[in-house]
Specification:
Layout lengths: L1 H50 L8 H9 L11 H16 L18 H24 L10 H10 L11 H20 L12 H23 L4 E4 L18 E4 L6 H25 L1 H6 L3 H13 L21 H25 L1
Antiparallel strand pairs: 1-2
Helix pairs in contact: 2-3, 3-4, 3-6, 3-8, 4-5, 4-7, 4-8, 5-6, 7-8, 7-11, 8-10, 8-11, 10-11
Amino acid sequence: MVLNAVTRPWIRLRGWFRRWREEREDSRLWWWLLWFLLIYLLVSAVVGMFWSVAPDQFDVVAQTQARTGASSDARPVTGSVTTATTIQLVETLLNKRGGYLTNDITPPGLWLDNQPNWEYGVLVQVRDMSKALRESFSRSQTQSTEDEDLAKAEARFNFDNNNWMLPSTESQYQEGIEFLEAYLDRLVDEDQTNAQFYARADNLRYWLATVETRLGSLSQKLTASVGQRRINTDLAGESDATQSTAAPKEILVKTPWSEIDDVFFETRGSAWALLHLLRAVEQDFGAVLDKKNARVSLQQIIRELEATQDFIYSPMILNGDGFGFVANHSLVMASYISRANAALIDLRTLLEQG
């Protein structure tokens, strides 16, 4: 009894010390996990800022010569600049800082939304150009056979842009690049005549009509950042026109505040891709533009689109109200896009009537 009375407090003290030590070790583990998480978030934020920088512009003629092995003195083969530029745009999507981010499932790519929207804007222009290459530029008439490589490339570029695996978006777009490269190789090979690019005014107008609708849609979404009450003009100009369901005569159009920066960066990406494609078109359709005296109109469109790529000094996209104290970046972007679209309409008219 006396022995138990003496040893019991020591046993209790030892048990208490063991529990205290275990709790301290658990607490230390949680502290290490917390520090690791904080460092990971900090590094991800820095890497995300680095990845959010848009790629630089490139020289469409120089990259075509490098891709085809042509000398700097030689005149590029008709269509080679447009095709090579389209390839370069897709390669930029896949190989820029951080790679292709739209389908990322882990930070920091998972948190970024500006770059994925920028990527989508570029992708839309690539899809439109690949469609024009298959349907118009590579065919002499509507009854001619479409190029097999261009048909496969267009299908790959229209694959879901947000698929992570089985198959991944990147693998499909890489296959599209390979099909375009196969077409380009045949195009610049003088011994092969089964790949053609027809630089005609009607072909160019076909593609420009698509670009016109894209810019018009982007301009409307940008100006809707402040909200507008618009008169419904859907059936204007046609007295006998009808539509599926009735629509109000006046509608309120406003871009949700959470989508304002999405629209802005989609437009910025689309304009970035489009100005390169227009520079390529200026090379391949130079004779057509000069004959129609339309080269200066094309250059003016490029000039307007170049202004959309100016450096953004604000850390966020501001959405001021009209002539208010705070700037509205969406309206500034809309002014450039609208002027480019107006010049594009004039260019199409020149190509048709000039």
